[in-house]
Amino acid sequence: xxxxxxxxxxxxxxxxxxxxxxxxxxxxxxxxxxxxxxxxxxxxxxxxxxxxxxxxxxxxxxxxxxxxxxxxxxxxxxxxxxxxxxxxxxxxxxxxxxxxxxxxxxxxxxxxxxxxxxxxxxxxxxxxxxxxxxxxxxxxxxxxxxxxxxxxxxxxxxxxxxxxxxxxxxxxxxxxxxxxxxxxxxxxxxxxxxxxxxxxxxxxxxxxxxxxxxxxxxxxxxxxxxxxxxxxxxxxxxxxxxxxxxxxxxxxxxxxxxxxxxxxxxxxxxxxxxxxxxxxxxxxxxxxxx
Length: 290
Hints:
2 domains; Spore Coat Polysaccharide Biosynthesis Protein SpsA, Chain A; single chain; 12 helices; alpha/beta
């Protein structure tokens, strides 16, 4: 039976991470290990994790290093054939591991694949589902990228690893996939196996213009220096730039910084005019008007 290592980095989420751990301990298939990487928490995360007393759970405390480094550390401790990097504020459905193992055993040629996810803010809303068998092109355009559903062969992951730059935090997943998609196929299966739990504390919902610009610059530098990306997908560089600039514009307008939003929206359109035809642009314009 294939064995999976689930790696969960966490920081000061003692009460929230308990729900995530509980969701894994109620899986219909238990051929997995749960690696909790405590990224320098100052709350009672250690006590919460150790209270389970489960051999299935491995707990490590490291100096605060951000998610990329925490995930790489977890991978170095993993014994599973496949790795699944899961966020500490989300929920795995009972079929998450079972479907993954079935998929691995039926498709031994696969090096990376992902399942579908749904949002949960009290009511469950399924995120737009790709109809492609492979989602490499969607990843290149930033239109499908949810780490909870992604499973990667350990030896393949170790070839690429997460970029550990703090300034990339929040986009380290996309950076990893962008560096992989020129050489690795990402297969997609439409079954929902996890929920993104929406709450005010989600890190992706915090607006900081300087941090977002630094994230954008770090991403472009990372993929521009990646042979695997530049050899196969350099033509997508403008697409990625415009997607990141419109991302900054969206987050600015969500926090009612309309002038800042307009500045980055104009940059996005100047970089790639077709960005104007995206759903994100529609969301930005609606917020700017109303």
